[in-house]
Amino acid sequence: MPSTSFPSRLGLVENLRNYLLAGQWSAMFGGPLIGKSTLARRLAGELDDAGAKSVFLQLPLLISDSAFWPLLLEALLHQGIGPAARNPFKKPPASLPDLMSQLHHLYERAPSEIAARPVVLILDDCDHLLRHETIIPQIVNLALESTLPSIQAICWVGGPAFADWVAAHPGTFKRALRLYPLSVIPIREARKIIREHLGPEKPVEEIDRIWNETGGHPLLMERAFNRQETPSTKSLRDQLRQTLRPEDEAVLGQLDPGGRWTILDALKDKRGEKIPKPALDRLCMIGLTVRTLIDGVAAIRITSPLFAQVTEQ
């Protein structure tokens, strides 16, 4: 998703920045087109502003395990040392030992103030690692063992599939991960953004209308403000549909397709029992639902009436 014309989820990025600056590791998860890459890039900028050295790598589809190491070397070289830095090695690294050897050589010859500056590594689109999952523990080993450069922390960024993998393999990371499941833009923050874009002369009813139509989803809000150069809502719905599990559809089927609020405790599974909290949290993380308190009572709604078609085949 291209960068939105408005910053959002400012508190989350600030909290995550401070956590990484303290040397702690984290993982940020979110559904399709919910703004993961936008937030990750802003996080990198805030880390740099705070005096750290961020290295941001958006992972492409990898044709092989060995294709990863040259990408990481280039990111650490050009972002960690400088955009003009050159790699004198003719053969790109094909393994973790190759990478560590070349990095040590490059950072050893870098100015001392650069070599001494710990790196915070931000890996985006980590779902692309799942077909090459043996790389993940090697990245962990690199961070724990490398002295040049010294990798202070890692932030892993991915979608629902990567979130499931992390939950199933907690020991792989050898460090406690602070998990940051995203959601759409919180209601109060979203309404403030809408008000700022509309201007003070617009009535509150117009703010209500746009929020009810978008539910705070960043892509839908971007389209409401500027309908140019944004992915289509059909593309978003198609991607959301691919994330659904049967239990997700069972919850969505109980929500009003027009976006009216439903009391959370009224939702039941097939056995007539309350929906487990992790299942509700997953729908928020994907971006399909919004939750709030109404007079102290928990309520839930589908994010946007446009998403009522997600469960349709």
TrEMBL record:
Keywords: ATP-binding, Nucleotide-binding. Gene3D superfamilies: P-loop containing nucleotide triphosphate hydrolases (3.40.50.300). GO terms for molecular function: ATP binding; ATP hydrolysis activity. Residues 30-136 form the ORC1/DEAH AAA+ ATPase domain. Pfam families: AAA_22 (PF13401). SUPFAM superfamilies: P-loop containing nucleoside triphosphate hydrolases. This is ATP-binding protein. It comes from Candidatus Manganitrophus noduliformans.
